[in-house]
């Protein structure tokens, strides 16, 4: 996470550095990224960089965390527009995410991120629900979910349903980049999996 010196910068200077970082992380994956390129593009001395962040990993995960926050807000908004329908909300959120990925400035950045996924990256993107802050976010989501039509008996079960649906979503997003899946094909595959989850996987016996 950024140091206080970064947080005390003007919005303009913060955006200059994060824009330069996103440009570099779009060019190459994290492990190949160069701090020299970032500070050159941002127009700051190397010493200043280390006053703001510990290293390039610190900056990279800060950008991902900011993206996760925006994702959370967008999902809540979509959930509210769908009157708490969890399944439709995941479909709409997935589609809006793919559309955002189609923008040139976003596509290569997220392609490098998803195709070099590790546990920490996935945890940052999805906000692992065992972390306190993520728990607070999830409980914020619960208040917007209409659980009347869900086969759940308590919040813990709802919690696990959400995790399962997020795992399915993440796998489909990775596939979009790994296989360069067209948007209509990606939506068809994701819609089928969401429909199967909604229907249930076990036949009802009399």
TrEMBL record:
Coiled coil feature spans: none
Domain of life from the UniProt record: Bacteria
Feature: DNA-binding region: 34-53
InterPro entries: Homeodomain-like_sf (IPR009057), HTH-type_Tx_Regulator (IPR050624), HTH_TetR (IPR001647)
Ranges for domain HTH tetR-type: 11-71
PROSITE patterns membership: HTH_TETR_2 (PS50977)
Keyword annotations from UniProtKB, A to Z: DNA-binding, Repressor
SUPFAM superfamilies noted in UniProt: Homeodomain-like
The name this protein goes by in its record: TetR/AcrR family transcriptional regulator
Organism: Bacillus xiapuensis
Lineage, uppermost ranks: Bacteria, Bacillati, Bacillota, Bacilli, Bacillales
């Amino acid at each position: 996470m950024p140091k206080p010196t970064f947080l005390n910068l003007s919005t303009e200077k913060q955006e200059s550095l994060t824009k330069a970082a996103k440009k570099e992380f779009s060019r190459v994956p994290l492990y190949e990224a160069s701090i020299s390129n970032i500070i050159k593009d941002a127009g700051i001395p190397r010493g200043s960089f280390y006053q703001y962040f510990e290293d390039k990993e610190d900056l990279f995960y800060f950008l991902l965390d900011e993206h996760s926050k925006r994702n959370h807000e967008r999902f809540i908004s979509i959930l509210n527009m769908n009157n708490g329908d969890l399944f439709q909300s995941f479909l709409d959120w997935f589609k809006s995410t793919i559309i955002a990925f189609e923008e040139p400035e976003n596509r290569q950045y997220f392609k490098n991120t998803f195709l070099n996924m590790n546990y920490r990256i996935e945890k940052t993107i999805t906000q692992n629900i065992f972390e306190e802050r993520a728990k607070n976010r999830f409980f914020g989501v619960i208040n917007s979910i209409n659980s009347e039509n869900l086969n759940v008996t308590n919040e813990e079960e709802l919690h696990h349903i959400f995790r399962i649906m997020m795992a399915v979503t993440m796998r489909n997003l990775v596939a979009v980049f790994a296989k360069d899946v067209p948007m209509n094909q990606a939506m068809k595959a994701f819609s089928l999996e969401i429909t199967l989850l909604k229907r249930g996987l076990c036949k009802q016996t009399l």
